[in-house]
Amino acid sequence: MVSTGRTACYIMTIGVIDECRKIGLGTKMLEHTIGSLEQCFKSCITFWLHVIDYNESAIKFYLKNNFIKYQRLKYHYYIDEKDYDAITLY
To answer: What is the pTM of this model?
Structure first.
């Protein structure tokens, strides 16, 4: 395998409490995160993340910010003794 030197950056967590949603704070945080990653990791060609499948507002947020749904990961999360799927976006 030949290495191209390109990398993907994973965004672990971005969150905004309910009272502060719909004022652009999440978009600003996402833009800042991506900008910082681009500065630190010049070879990064894509950004990806996971969202728990029932978090429709987060999925809509990322789609609005030009992320694309990639795949569903079955049983990715285990919370309070229950399995949940994740949606991967890039």
So the answer is: 0.86
